[in-house]
């Protein structure tokens, strides 16, 4: 009986390990007030907005996250895991147009946010590597078979 339970448990763990990548983007920041002092152990609200094509393009996704800074004023968040305001993180078309991330902060607890800037979202090394999988080229064919290569990978 123990062997059967062990096998079922191992099959469950193996199946669960094939889960998809998490739907989130890590974000870390050291927060300061207008005079440059660290916002140590303070409650803040961060608003993330993803714009399409340009820094002021259409908002494809927006969320807010409430958190507390640590002793050094640092927050560690995951974009996509907050409270959605506009759109759905899982339906963003990352393959169409450039995307720009706008960060805003609220330290007063109200609904007024201070714009901290907007930056184009760029590839990370893992994404650059995985891009090679999308570059398959047809190297030969006949009426029944198509053969594709990945130029050395």
Order of helices and strands: HEEEEEEEHEE
Q: Give start-end ranges of low-pLDDT stretches.
A: none
End-to-end C-alpha gap: 45 Å
Give the overall form: globular
Question: What would you say this structure looks like, in words?
Answer:
It is a single chain. The strands form 3 sheets. A 5-stranded antiparallel beta sheet has the order 5-3-2-6-7, with no helix packed on it. The chain has a two-stranded antiparallel ribbon with strand order 1-4. A two-stranded antiparallel ribbon has the order 8-9. The model has no long low-confidence stretch (mean pLDDT 82). The longest helix has 15 residues, at 2-16. A hairpin with a 6-residue loop joins strand 2 and strand 3 (59-68). The protein is globular and about 60 Å long. With 153 residues, it is mainly beta. It has a domain at 23-123: Immunoglobulin-like, CATH 2.60.40. The termini are far apart. The protein is built from 2 helices and 9 strands.
Features:
153 residues; mainly beta; Immunoglobulin-like; 5-stranded antiparallel beta sheet; two-stranded antiparallel ribbon; 2 helices; 9 strands; globular
Detail the topology: elements first, then pairings.
Layout: H1 2-16, E1 25-30, E2 43-52, E3 59-68, E4 74-79, E5 83-86, E6 99-106, E7 114-120, H2 125-130, E8 137-141, E9 146-149
Quick recap of the structure?
This protein has 153 residues and is mainly beta. It contains two helices and nine strands.
């Amino acid at each position: 009986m123990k062997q059967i339970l062990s096998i079922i448990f191992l099959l469950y763990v193996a199946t669960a390990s094939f889960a998809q990548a998490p739907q989130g983007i890590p974000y870390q920041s050291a927060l300061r007030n207008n005079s440059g002092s660290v916002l140590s152990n303070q409650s803040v609200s961060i608003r993330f907005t993803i714009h399409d094509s340009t820094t002021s393009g259409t908002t494809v996704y927006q969320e807010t996250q409430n958190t507390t800074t640590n002793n050094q004023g640092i927050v560690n968040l995951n974009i996509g895991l907050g409270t959605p305001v506009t759109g759905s993180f899982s339906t963003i078309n990352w393959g169409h147009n450039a995307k720009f991330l706008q960060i805003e902060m609220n330290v007063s607890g109200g609904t007024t946010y201070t714009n901290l800037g907007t930056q184009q979202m760029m590839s990370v090394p893992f994404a650059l590597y995985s891009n090679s999988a999308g570059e398959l080229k047809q190297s030969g064919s006949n009426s029944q078979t198509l053969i594709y290569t990945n130029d050395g990978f």
